[in-house]
Amino acid sequence: MKKIVVFGGGTGLSCLLSGLKLFPVDVTTVIAVSDNGSSTGVLKKELDIPAVGDVGKVLISMANVDEDFTRLLRYRFSRDGSLHNHPVRNIMLAALIDLKGSLTEATRYMCRLLNVKGTVLPLTEEKVELVGENEAHEREFFGQVEVSRNIRSIARLNYDHDVHVSQEVVAHILDSDLIVFSPGSLYTSILPHLIAPEVVEAISRAKAPVLYVCNFFTQPGETDHYKVSDHLKVLNRYLGARKVDIVLANNGMIDPAVAEVYLTKENKTAVELDREKVLALGARLIEDDVVCIEDGSLRHDALKTAFLIFSWLMGK
Fold this sequence. Notes:
The protein is α/β, with parallel strands linked by helices. The protein has 3 domains: 1-32 and 164-316, 3-Layer(aba) Sandwich (Rossmann fold), CATH 3.40.50; 37-122, no CATH class; 129-162.
């Protein structure tokens, strides 16, 4: 069975994994734990633990249990009080870190509980914060939320301290047949993996090709006016010796009415597929109409996107 390692965070990662779990591949998901917003940020600060939010989302997307159980884990307390805005999955993971001794072991237990196919690993066991630094080294932007708001003023990303990546993560990278970067916030969901030197070194040593699933829309304040090739250039810069080998991008038409909603409500514009520039960067291009609408939002068609990845992997 072919082995895939997927890096990412947020909704884009969860969507991709919900498709990949339907195919006969061995998937290892590595999740950044530097988020500091919403429920995750509160638990991280109060309990002095790594960010658990994206781990919880991934576990639900890969779960193979009845819908009532996943609805319970998604449930977010809405009444005022100490539990306000906390989803059940975050509370469970926080409790399991205490019971099991680490986020990795807490995640392993949740995988068994949810009958998850594959392996889910946090990038690190440490409580870490993203730090952005401007070109003149004169100012730092501390934490994922502040970094996301100030990307235009940031020349480089780091963590607030040196992080240790487990040898299990490194071993899965070296043993993989394909390395995938999921859709998601480029600077705050994807790059947090590539500012960990052990990950970059492992990818440089790995024989597996690197594939990037590109976003549909720009991220306000992060990737305004970015085309597919612009995303690729940023990834290549942080990858160092390695480069992205394959880009999976949407070539389908986005309904103009839907695009207008994203523009007016969220200030997001569609990411243009500039084929010639992508190919000039040495990447192979897999393009198709992979857009679908889910709960009123545009998402990658999970099944079709996973099928394209699986087909390429089996045919290479």
